[in-house]
Amino acid sequence: MTATVPAIDALRLADAERCAELEKLLFPGDDPWSAPAFREELRAGHHYLAARDGDRLVGYAGLAFVAGPPFAEAEIHTIGVDPGYQRRGIGRELLRGLLAVADAERATVFLEVRTDNEAARRLYEDEGFTVVGLRKRYYRPSGADAHTMRREPAA
């Protein structure tokens, strides 16, 4: 690990294996995504970003549009940062990159976050999200609950 600030760019199909590796580290009890799942998301045309320290993928984030104008809506599908790179603002930069794409379409953005993930919930609140619902036993197989959060498009 270096002290450089990771660069943010587009996630590539070749990154799928590393994303799946990070998923296993980050979400071991909640059915982490596989490499084929990441490749499927990219092939479907969803918007995914990568954080790279040199050639090493250290973070990823994805957004999908679920409704178009005039009432555009998008969902944050996933955000993950290598544990060795957390608390450096990488997750925030990835999130802001996704939100810029959503804002360009004037989309309302939704996401789910574990109710016990205070750090993530604070990040989302800092970026304009509010809790709008509770999904009991949303995460599998752990059965953890999730808050549904929403952010209106930036003016």
From TrEMBL:
Record's keyword terms, sorted: Acyltransferase, Cytoplasm, Ribonucleoprotein, Ribosomal protein, Transferase
Q: Where in the cell is it found?
A: Cytoplasm
Q: Does the keyword Acyltransferase apply?
A: yes
- The EC number of this protein is 2.3.1.266
User: In terms of one coarse class, where is the protein primarily found?
Assistant: cytoplasm
Under the GO molecular function aspect, what terms does this record hold? protein-N-terminal-alanine acetyltransferase activity
Reactions it catalyzes = N-terminal L-alanyl-[ribosomal protein bS18] + acetyl-CoA = N-terminal N(alpha)-acetyl-L-alanyl-[ribosomal protein bS18] + CoA + H(+)
Q: Name one GO cellular component term.
A: ribosome
Top-rank taxon of the source lineage equals Bacteria
Top-level EC class: transferase
InterPro entries, alphabetically? AcTrfase_RimI/Ard1 (IPR006464), Acyl_CoA_acyltransferase (IPR016181), GNAT_dom (IPR000182), YpeA/RimI_acetyltransf (IPR050680)
Q: Does the keyword Acyltransferase apply?
A: yes
Give residue ranges for domain N-acetyltransferase: 6-150
Family stated for the protein in its record: Belongs to the acetyltransferase family. RimI subfamily.
Q: Which NCBIfam families match?
A: rimI
Describe the function of this protein. Acetylates the N-terminal alanine of ribosomal protein bS18.
Q: Give the protein name, as stated in the record.
A: [Ribosomal protein bS18]-alanine N-acetyltransferase
Q: Which organism is it from?
A: Pseudonocardia alaniniphila
Gene it is expressed from: rimI
